[in-house]
Every structure is written in structure tokens, then in C-alpha cells.
Amino acid sequence: MLATIRHYTLATMCSFKLSLQRQFEYPIQIISCFIMVPMMYGSGVLLLYFMVENYQPINGWTFPQLTFVYGIGNISHAVMMIFAAQLWNIEKYVIHGEFDRMILRPMSIYYQFLTNEINFIALIDLITGGIILSYGCRLVEFNWSAYNTVKIIMVVLGAALIRFSIFTVICTITFWTKKCMSLVALANELLERTTLYPVSIYPFFLQFIFTFIIPVAFISFYPACEFLGQDAYFNFPIGLSVLTPIIGILVVIPAVMFFNYALKSYESSGS
Question: What DSSP character marks residue 116?
């Protein structure tokens, strides 16, 4: 067991080093991300501000509360992008036969795929999301007690797992279709909309789907309801901030199983 853990750790550190070297080979790209990412997230905050201030609160949610929700959603997105950005490039892996060498190695293929490219540039997203969340916490006068701090960290990690699971399932379809970017774009748009605004603005059947079928409501909306004392519409037997990491673990397991099942349909490039 210890030898296996050591083997995986050394292989992961090697992948981290290579990813760092590849991404920092083009400094202009990093500089452009430092400019564009804050502008993109900042425009989202401004959109919320102008909508609420010029019209009215969105289903009872004020600008400070919406900023808090938006911050949680952005941080979970950044965490997911750091460790799972290569899911969006799975078409290249399938079409070019990149899984051939992974299959021959005595390691988990899924683990190799995930650690093959660590997106260090997404740390910019993480920093920007942290600033927005800190701003939202300041606006809602969030109590940074040790208990609340642990809860919000667990929420972010659980939300990242939910995002990760959704994209894993969608991208895994590539083993059969060889294409998935249209579905990825659709899923990304869905997640952006359902984590930017309170899920309570949608009809009941969509709230049901986003809660029990595709649990995106647990990414930011339900945890924010608990932290801010808002009505969550559905009643749950345990705390909403506790449910997010539990659901994250529960959905990631079948997502990985689905990936391993679909891998059986993988066809080498033949070159």
C-alpha cells in the first residue's frame, strides 16, 4: 500500500512539474488571463448590481446576497478548472489516441488522465473568485468563525466535485461520439446561469431537476440559503452546507464508474 501511494505521489509531482513548465512557457498568455479573468468576473458582479439597483431584488435576494452566491460559485468553478480542465480537451485524447499509453501503464487510467495536465493558470480564477466571495461576505456581514470557515471550505470542495461530476459524464460521451464540445458549452452555460441567480426564480419542475436530478442547486444556492437565513423552498433533514460535500461525493462515484465503463468503447487512432 505504501509503495503504491509513493508511486502515485511521485508520478503526480512529475505531472505537476511538466504542466507548470508547459503553461509558463508563454508568459503573454498568463498576462492576458490576469487581465481578462478579473474583467469577466467583475462584469458579472456589475450585472447583478445594475439589475438589482435599477429594478428590484431578484425573488427577494439583494445585491449583497447575490454577490455571496456568485462568489461561492466562482471559487468552486476555479477549483474544478485547476484539476479537471483537461476534461474539456478529451476530444483530442480520443481522436489522437492519447489514451493508448495510459492503458499500458500500471496506474488508474482515470487518475492519469486527470493529472496529465494541471491548470495552474486557473489559480487566477481562484484568486478572483476569492476576492468576490470576500466582498460578498463583507456585504452580508458574514461571521468568520472557525465553524463557519470549515463549513464554507467544505461547501466549495463539494461544489467543485458536483461540477466535476457533471463535466465527467458529459465529456465521457466522447468515447462514443468523438465530439462533445457543444454539450460542454451547454453545460457550462447551464452552470453559469444556475449559480449566478437563486434557483428559486425557476418553475417548480426546474427546481426539482436542479435539486434531485442534476444537483447544481447545491453548488451555491442551498449553502447560501443556510448561511444567509433564506428560504430554501425544499426542506432537508440535515444542514444544507453539510449536504453539498455529501452530494459531491455521492455523484462523483457514479461519474467515475461511467467513465471507466465508456473507456471500454475507446478506439485507438490506428496511427
Answer: T
